[in-house]
Amino acid sequence: MKRIKNMYEKIYDFENLYQAYLEARKNKRYRDEVLKFTANLEENLIQIQNELIYKTYKVGRYREFFVYEPKKRLIMALPFKDRVVQWAIYRQLNPILDKQFIYDSYACRKGKGTHKAADRLQYWLRKVNRKPQKYYYLKLDISKYFYRIDHEILMNILKREIADKDLLWLLDVIINSEDTKFGLPLDADLDNFEGERLSDVGMPIGNLTSQLFANLYLNELDQYAKHKLKLRYYIRYMDDIIILHHDKKYLHAVKDDIENFLNEKLKLNLNRKTAIRPITCGIEFVGFRIWPTHRKLKKKTALKMKRCLKYLQKVYARGEVDFKTVNATVQSYFGLLKHCNSYKLRRKLLQALVFVRNSDRRKE
């Protein structure tokens, strides 16, 4: 693949910036910062354009908060102006880099996603389940992936792909943020971490470019797995990886090879969730437990869903949320349940799904 050249001008092209603005404002157009940016749209886009042309652009200050689904994560949100810049880069760079990713990488890619990943893995399970050998799966999980991506290694990968010095400058400004540190020590406990974050590792979860960089970083492993190890049944959703094979000893050897590659080439480590088990146990992947014959929602996810609906019933009864908000949540849950065998769970949820206002006790 030829190295990418002459892309920087396309990124700061006014039309590209305008399209980036439209992408960045989707589902957020009535937020205060978006309305403020939109009120002086042309002026703000020209300011971004000039900052990129004259290389005076600096990343804004991140707003930090935690999310707890599917596990506790530190999210770093950029000001709207910087999200426009992120989209401007992504619109030009992602389509080119995406072409070199393997087919069975499913995270943050157009036409892929969790449901496609679950379908693909189940297709493989049905296929191998018809064979005479007993099949096993190797589940690999990388420890603190986003917090441990090495900046120097990432920049070297980008330099191998990109020959545009101006674009590399911009990507370096984003990766090596002057004001914010993203990394954590390998042994850090996110729940109780009070030390200083690291500046030479880590990507901010929530950034559009972080999704692209994270896929590009582990593409190194994907290529090694497919072309060096010749793995046939290999699938990845961000840092969750599943490999199928009928030889348990072979999977142990593959696990050692991959661990060595991650340690030496990418400075990453596997965590304790890494395991080898028969496929008859069901494989936890992208929010489901998957067997050749069926798939179910993970018990932990189902429990959280039930708790959330009970909480919504309480706050709706107190008048703290409207029916539109409640309905949106309920519809999203039932949309998810359509992708797995969930008849009993749906029935239980429907039986308990009564929303009543305390004021008039009316059902809606």
TrEMBL record:
<dbReference type="InterPro" id="IPR051083">
    <property type="entry name" value="GrpII_Intron_Splice-Mob/Def"/>
</dbReference>
<dbReference type="InterPro" id="IPR043502">
    <property type="entry name" value="DNA/RNA_pol_sf"/>
</dbReference>
<dbReference type="InterPro" id="IPR000477">
    <property type="entry name" value="RT_dom"/>
</dbReference>
<dbReference type="Pfam" id="PF00078">
    <property type="entry name" value="RVT_1"/>
</dbReference>
<protein>
    <submittedName>
        <fullName>RNA-dependent DNA polymerase</fullName>
    </submittedName>
</protein>
<feature type="domain" description="Reverse transcriptase">
    <location>
        <begin position="1"/>
        <end position="290"/>
    </location>
</feature>
